[in-house]
Amino acid sequence: MQILLSLPGNVVNENLDGFQKVLESYSKLDFKYLDNVPVTKDHAGTTVSYFGDEEWILSAYIDRKITNKDKITFSEISSFELATELKMICFSWLYTNAGRGNSYPLKPSTIIFQHSKLLQVYKFLEKMKWASISKLSHAVLFYEFCTYLTSLQYSYGNTVQIFSMLNKVQRADHILPIGLVIPTDQSTKALAIECCAVEKTKPNQFYAMPTSIMEKIYSRAIDYIEKLYPYRVLLSELIRELRINYEVGKKVVDRKINDGSWKWLTPNSADYRVEVNKAKPQSYSSIIELYLQGTPLEKHILPWRQFESWLSKIQAACYIVCAAFTGMRRSELYSLHPDSFKTRTYNGKIIHTVQSYHHKMTQGRGQLSEWVTTTIVGDAISLAEALTQYMREQLFNHPDPMKNHEASCLWLTQTKKSEAPKIIYEGHFRNKFNEIAKEAGAIVDDEALEEFYLINPNQNSVLSNKKIALGYIWPITSHQFRRTFAVFVRRHNLCSTIAVKEQFKHLDIPTSEWYEEGGAAAVLRGINTDSELSELIKNVRNEVITETVFKWYNRKDKLFGKRGLEIMKDRGSIPTEHKSWQEIHNHVKAGRIDFVGTLHSYCLAGYQCQMSKVASPANCFKCENQLIDEEQAKGWSIRHQQCIQQIKYLKSIDSFSSSIESHYLSQIKAAERVMHFFNIPFSEYKQDGGNDD
């Protein structure tokens, strides 16, 4: 059988025969055969996990830059019957469509997550000494489970997920012979509200930082980057020398072990590390002093452990800057690489971006995307790259291909010298975040607390009161940078909600608005105190819209798009009084005429449009509300060039696929239609690669 992870849906049918044999063995209680069924393999195709194992290793299917969880464990369930049933469910998720809630195969990280939630149910079953999850089909026993879940005082979100797993098992009755029928008509959300902790019923949205806290933390992180960026090569060479010094000592000890001189020692002995340390040509402190003595970094000549901690803090500062000035998700930040920072010219303006992969609602490797940012992020990436250069070289030369894949990651550590470098996860970063917050003096005061409640309207006060307290350091988590970015840019009107949607790679406008929650409230608090300012802003907006629409109806300028062509057609038939500036202004003030810019066109549906297709502008050609004027057409010309350049780049790194080609080709052809209509010179794109420019 072929594992279903990240593979096309047609693999499901190919797997059915093999899965049927497993199912028959399970039904016949043929556990000898069942235990020897291969479940997962490594990158070379060698089986690493069998059905009977207490641990299923998924490392060959997991991108460690996205998650640090790479296994499913069953050891917490001691009952053989329950553990086997749980394995059958997880096996069906791997090889059939049993766990799918949509048309996409399950991601390995999703399967690991679903197992962790279903495990809570099986812990209850074992506690009650019941042999199958089907026991919950009885109304009385299901009530006992709900009572048990209530006693755990889980949050609403966690409780919903547990009930959702029961629903998945119930819906898999066409595949699995378990026969679970949930004895209630209540929805998972209704059940979760009844069973979760009362004070945890309200979701606790990730926090946006108050302005004073944000400024202190970001300033401190930027200060690290600006001061150390000029010395990144020096630090890189120092880190390399420290590692080589260790490797020389290790070779000396390994040679004595291998030639039999030291029969009393093995690489697994407790004294192995001590002997390697003795065999090093130089002490760590002497190397640090040699490199930093007489430089502006002289004050950082510290004992090895303190110096190592200081380097980790620099990495954390680089991470903060990258997250703070892009709004990227954690998985996207971990997909940054040394060549991520790009500088482009758009409409005569210099635009800085970072290139990475986003994995939300994508299958397989992820989708290559770009995020608008600022130059300090480029410096942060360069500094992080220098600090991990030798670690990445070690991973690149490692015999394990999975380690080779991690070699592009910027966020690495090697605290255990005898092991290959590892990716830094948030738990380690969080300690450094707190150190930076403490250094920055990011202490919660009355003003910060008041602003916290204003810009975080969806926080659960019962939970937030335990984390955000007067006189204490602000507790940083990585997702706060994303929320803070959205709230800040909308609060200060630095970009539109549509621009946030583009930056955050959201599927629709409501999701972006959810991230911005609190930004509008902060703006309104200031504007409401000045009614004249509020009225001025409203009047200016109405006049801008009126002036633009007046120009469309009264000039002979070309317009494209379905709505644009309609306006051009109707110009001669509309009475003059209805095309007057005042008449149009009256319609605008009454809300009957409105439009928004979509970066590539105008949408005359106003903010009623959810902009779900704005990420691929070509899709808007089917919309009756699209309008493109000559100024927007210039933007299409630039988009045409960028798409062709992007295709060439993807081909050069062997990352070009048919789906990516389809995405860019639709935009290129749409741009060519626009340029042809407006008589803008262009070279037609040829799919066979015959383009010269």
TrEMBL record:
SUPFAM superfamilies: DNA breaking-rejoining enzymes. GO terms for molecular function: DNA binding. InterPro entries: DNA_brk_join_enz, Integrase-like_cat_sf. GO terms for biological process: DNA integration; DNA recombination. Keywords: DNA recombination. Coiled coil: none annotated. This is Integrase. It comes from Salinimonas sediminis.
